[in-house]
Amino acid sequence: MASAIDLELTEGWQRPSGIFVIAEVGGEVGERIREIQERFDPKLANTLPPHITVVGSSGFGPIAPDTSPGELQAALFQICLDTEPMELSLGSPHRFMQTDIVVLPLDPYGPLRELHERIGRSGLTFARARFAFTPHVTLSFYRTLDAATLRSLMAVRVKERVRIDAIRCSLSNEPMPPRTLVDFELSGSGALESRR
Description:
Mean pLDDT: 88
Helix content: 25-40%
CATH class: Alpha Beta
Number of helices: 6
Order of helices and strands: HEHHEHEEEHEHEEE
CATH architecture: Alpha-Beta Complex
Strand order of the largest sheet: 2-1-8-9
Number of domains: 1
Low-confidence stretches: 1-13, 191-196
CATH topology: Cyclic Phosphodiesterase, Chain: A
């Protein structure tokens, strides 16, 4: 069975229009991933920061593009209020068959999946997703990799854990760059404030 990443990685794939929920990978691990991207796929490194797509590419499709920031706030505020920041481990690099796309997979279960599922049950309108939830951080997307370069990339290991303490709702309408609609901190403390 094809995974969501397979959809993203097929030649000519274009991100569908809609609102994606992402979690940027920050701190030292984010810097390390960006360095890897810059070495193996500079175009990717210059397009988006290292991130995990929580909702939009798998499990649940993008949120309807006409959803207002106020509607996002109403639907997601309590979810983020209840969700503790999480520390996640990255798997070994994974290459998708017949592509040069290489990603670091994350466990699709546990707190990340719970956040994904709660957003999916929030009452927002989502496009249909064709694939199961397959979270990951992309290392190489645009570049064609020769055998030696691919071997080097597949040997990379990122042992630092990823801390997810915020999510971003980002409107995608290619070829335009994504536009941030609203950011939320994952609080778990009852003191959440929207950051926009």
